[in-house]
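sry for the spam today, last one i promise. struct tokens for design, 109 residues
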């Protein structure tokens, strides 16, 4: 399970999930019924991405969107990884210095 608590981390997370699946922008776009350019926009400027587009993109990557009651979030802490904005704080940092979310089989976004 991946907990995303900052919308700025969504685009980089989608990109990382796409890379982990070995998909190109065009391949993921075809699965999500959007152009390569449209998929690029979802990865780089997802501030105004409609929820339906997010669900389609995640489904194309093999993930589901789940809502978690924040009052129960602590109970899930041992079973998930947070995905926060620190992961994208410095877009010019060397890759080894950027904490990158890496879902494992069975994780849910």
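last one done:
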């Amino acid at each position: 399970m991946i907990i995303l608590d900052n919308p700025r981390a969504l685009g980089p997370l989608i990109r990382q999930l796409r890379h982990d699946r070995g998909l190109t922008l065009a391949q993921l776009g075809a699965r999500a019924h959007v152009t390569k350019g449209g998929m690029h926009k979802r990865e780089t400027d997802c501030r105004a991405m409609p929820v339906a587009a997010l669900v389609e993109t995640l489904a194309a990557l093999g993930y589901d969107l789940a809502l978690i009651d924040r009052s129960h979030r602590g109970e899930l802490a041992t079973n998930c990884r947070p995905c926060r904005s620190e992961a994208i704080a410095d877009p010019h940092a060397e890759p080894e210095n950027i904490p990158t979310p890496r879902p494992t089989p069975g994780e849910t976004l």
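The mean pLDDT is 76. ok im logging off now
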